[in-house]
Amino acid sequence: MTVIINGSSATLPGDPRVSLLDFLREHLHLSGTKKGCDQGACGACTVLVDGERILSCLALAVQFDGRQVTTIEGLSDDAGLHPLQQAFIEHDGFQCGYCTPGQICSAIGMAAEAKRGLPSHVSADLTAEVTLTREEMQERMSGNLCRCGAHNGIIDAIRETVVAGMAA
Amino acid sequence: MTPFSFTRATDPDEALRLFEGNASYLGGGTNLVDLMRETIARPERLVDVTALSDTIEETADGGLLIGAAVRNTALAEHLGVRTRYPVLARAILAGASAQIRNMATVGGNLLQRTRCLYFYDHAGSRCNKRAPGSGCDAVHGFNRNHAILGASPLCVATHPSDMCVALAALDATVHLTGAGGARTLPFTALHRLPGEHPEIDTVLEPGELITAIELPPLPFAANSTYRKVRDRASYAFALVSVAAALEIEGGQIRDVRIALGGVAHKPWRATTAEAALRGGPATEAAFRDAAITELADAKPLSDNGFKVELVTRTLAAVLSELAGAAA
């Protein structure tokens, strides 16, 4: 049983108790993905699976046979940071940085959801094209907590990068 | 986490064969994995059923058949759900976070356990749902989030799902398969009130598998919505919630569906309020009176008396909104 992590194949653990989060951090030493609450409340462990954001702490690694996982390590390359990473720096989108990998993976997943027209709890019209207002972004990012309180910078960084990317 | 074996079923028959002894079916895992990590759930075998039906199909009579492995996001995103059953899309979008909705399955959502803190506190609290016969520390404890309807002295927990409140309002049907063959149940008959056995949440037989949810055609459900009242604006469980659909003709209520969340051990279909409203005027006073009638048997605990007025106001506000949209 294998899973593709950031483009590379990895053999899934034999023990089904291993979460996708522990598999990434402890088995593959990809420590960019963070363990915050380990119970699905904080979003620090958010990764992308086949482009969709999920919580790796609540995911058993064995369930991901044949799937494509992208972590924060997979977003940048030798050419430099992902534009959203750079925007987080420029907009002070963090202080301690612990929630940042989850925030960034979550925002990328959110952008894809909005682009395909998925409404949110605050969308007045369930079938209208999505406009990512500040209120929409706050609602759509509510699964990612920042205990430093950098949410305003986080939203600014997402707006500059993701929303601009959608408009382009 | 207690050790367990893991298998993956490719169809319902295989799932039933793989389910042996102390086993659990596994969907997205968003509740079960957490409960296993806390050792509150200790299955020896997990049967992954996420490869089972994840399609949403039109039924011959104009409803929808939703596979049990459909993810919550996919159900809220389905155009037919958004236009014909907006209460269901809104209920799903009001629940959990985007990441959790991407993982969670429809079948798993139905079978999630209460979030009563005493149920989770296995090290320090008594809970009849977790350890039958041990007692309930919520009855005289911190019970602000707990039930006001249909509770028993043994358990005052509430059902945590938003999606289920909408399904209760929509007259959904649950499709099941088990050792005795396939059967269907009205959605409102799936979950139990706690009674003498709060450890049992549903009427499912051991090993019985949810294969689909069926929504009947309900044209006036196009005028439906869901309102959730909670302590923070997003990503929190309901204090109370209201799912409702309303049909008005000449200022009179022709038909109505109402279900309440956050008030009972199961999604609470408000049949008393519906009967009081049907054929009557669509006024805010009538909506309030219907809510008060529905809550006549409410038994608030020490900390949750506010829920009686909160349900009354929320129900009146939701129906007023729907009446305005229908006018």
UniProtKB/TrEMBL annotation, chain A:
Cross-referenced InterPro entries: 2Fe-2S-bd (IPR002888), 2Fe-2S-bd_dom_sf (IPR036884), 2Fe-2S_ferredoxin-like_sf (IPR036010), 2Fe-2S_ferredoxin-type (IPR001041), 2Fe2S_fd_BS (IPR006058), Aldehyde_Oxdr_Iron-Sulfur (IPR052914), Beta-grasp_dom_sf (IPR012675)
Pfam family, one: Fer2_2
Keywords: 2Fe-2S, Iron, Iron-sulfur, Metal-binding, Oxidoreductase
Ranges where the 2Fe-2S ferredoxin-type domain occurs: 1-75
Entry's Gene Ontology molecular function annotations: 2 iron, 2 sulfur cluster binding; metal ion binding; oxidoreductase activity, acting on the aldehyde or oxo group of donors
PROSITE patterns: 2FE2S_FER_1, 2FE2S_FER_2
SUPFAM superfamilies noted in UniProt: 2Fe-2S ferredoxin-like, CO dehydrogenase ISP C-domain like
PANTHER family: OXIDOREDUCTASE WITH IRON-SULFUR SUBUNIT, OXIDOREDUCTASE, IRON-SULPHUR BINDING SUBUNIT-RELATED-RELATED
Protein name: 2Fe-2S iron-sulfur cluster binding domain-containing protein
UniProtKB/TrEMBL annotation, chain B:
Superkingdom of source: Bacteria
Keyword Ion transport tagged: no
MF terms in GO: FAD binding; oxidoreductase activity
FAD-binding PCMH-type domain span: 1-220
UniProt keyword Flavoprotein present: yes
SUPFAM superfamilies the UniProt entry points to: CO dehydrogenase flavoprotein C-terminal domain-like, FAD-binding/transporter-associated domain-like
Keyword annotations from UniProtKB, A to Z: FAD, Flavoprotein
Entry protein name: Xanthine dehydrogenase family protein subunit M
Organism of origin: Sphingomonas populi
